[in-house]
Amino acid sequence: MLQAHGLACDRGDRRLFSGVDFAVPAGEWLQVEGPNGAGKTSLLRIVAGLAAAAEGHLEWEGQAVAEARDAFNARLLYLGHAPAIKDDLSALENLQIAAAVAGRPLDESTALAALRRIGLGGREDLPSRVLSQGQKRRVALARLLCSQARLWILDEPFVALDVAAVDQLCTILDEHLARGGLLLFTSHQAVHLAGSGGSLRLGR
Amino acid sequence: MNAFVAIVRRDLLLAARRKSEVLTALFFFMIVVSLFPLGIGPETAMLRRIAPGVLWVAALLAAMLSLNRLFATDHQDGTLEQMALSPTPLAVLVSGKVLAHWLTSGLPLVLLAPVLGLQFDLSARALGVLMISLLLGTPILSLIGAIGAALTLGVRGGGVLLSLLVLPLYIPALIFGAGAVEADVAGLGAGGHLSLLGALLALGVFFAPWAATAALRIALD
Amino acid sequence: MINWFKFASPASFYPLAGKLWPWFAALATAFCAAGLWISFFVAPTDFQQGEGYRIIFIHVPASWMSMFIYCVMAFWAAIGITFNTRLSGMMSAALAPTGALFAFLSLWTGALWGKPMWGAWWVWDARLTSELILFFLYLGYIALTSAIDDPRRADKAGAIVALVGVVNVPIIYFSVKWWNTLHQGASVSLTKAPSMATTMLWGMLLMALAFWMYSIAMSLYRVRAIILEREHHAGWVAELPEMQR
Known about the structure:
Chain A is of the alpha/beta class. Chain A contains 6 helices and 9 strands. At the B-C interface, α8 and α9 of B face α4 and α5 of C.
């Protein structure tokens, strides 16, 4: 259970949003919607702990997140706008290093299986420089397949993906929710996910 | 600890794939050092006197070259966010990056310095002291530099600003480092200088990752 | 017991600073007049250094002030980091130009003093060199904080620079001193005027007080400008009498 109480965010001297409350129970999703500049990314970054909220606080399993940041981080997977892919490393290296930094090292066979499932079979050892935008996105999404994090925070996960990849990502998200995972994401398009969830609208 | 090793390995791997960046700094070091005899004249007594200072100043400047990119690429491609969200404290991962930076930009200078010292007619003993002083001093440059690199992350004109912030803080390392070699050449013994350099290094290892982490959090916010 | 935290809010500090700064400015003028009178007309001519020594009445207090202001900046930085108050960052930013000015003044008067005494505009004396590095530290702080657009971010980054700097200042001073003795630099020091007469001490103290008052007045005046600049959206700024025109 992830709960937010009265979150507010300032950018410069402008208040982007205030009084944002929500609760995401286990196995459910929350889609953050709103026009450009409404503060969707800022909200996700605040929940992930990358940015500080001007007001309000977060609770994870009934405990204030600010008091147990490292434990919260261990249960969290965040994918931002930038895919966190190093151009000079191969897809396999990128995936393995990202997993090690996130505290859950992967062995090579698991990582290879994930890359194959996400549709990068045969390209595991190419430097990411030669991959297309959508393929780089897929490398980042392969992290979802290997992740054991309970809470996924995804910023525009469907951007730059083709139809087949969108379907595949939906399947991956459904599996995560079915395992009792939580999902917080932004998207400009309507997304059909199994299970229950809601949406949060920012900006009037 | 795993994440620390992963960061060091990743940065070394990246440096190995982009050898030109490491080599550029190294060539810069060589060229700057070689310019001094050309500007001052080849008189050996004079060269022996200026050698410690010249080698150390050139090492400062060469170490500065790669500082710009220490966090900038990680910031751009989103890796820094992932590091900040790791269950391993960010300060530990920053230490890993500093260690990798030293291995790729400081250690080569240490290894190359004696060869360049020969151009200045330094004795074998002085060359040894020079190497030890650089071995103790170049990690200080990486550590202090990391604070500056983190502070100027995403700031207009970051490169020039970085040198303005960092170079004054390098002065103690320069004084004790070059002083050690000078003292040895003068027959005074370099022990005092080297232990002070070691003390600075201990202080830096303790303090700098913490300050750099605080600065990175500001840049991420 | 005064509630200090009340004045930590820019809205209540702004009018307080407005009331205080003219008093400090007046005190600065008075002390400066008295100090200059003593240093030019009362203090005796030094038998070794002649009339030229009188520049130390400016030089020494300026050096003290430049070092002290850096420590005050670091103090505000520490407060800002611990309590996350907006005003402390503004105070640091307001103090920096004054500190840089005193560092520059100290270098300039040092050079003016050095020419007749040492026969050179610049000598690598340990104190002068440290002062030069301190000047660089001020410049670094000012350059960094003015290069960052978001004022809150600029304050936080500036706070780290000030704290890192204040840890380094003693190390730098010590290392420069060590370097100086190794190289047997100038042996005459500006402050080691042989057996300082009491009138000279008085002059110097009065000038130091004048510089204190000037720094307080200037930083209060400047912090008012910074508050207005940053809070111009806030309701209380629009209600100020000076905004009613």
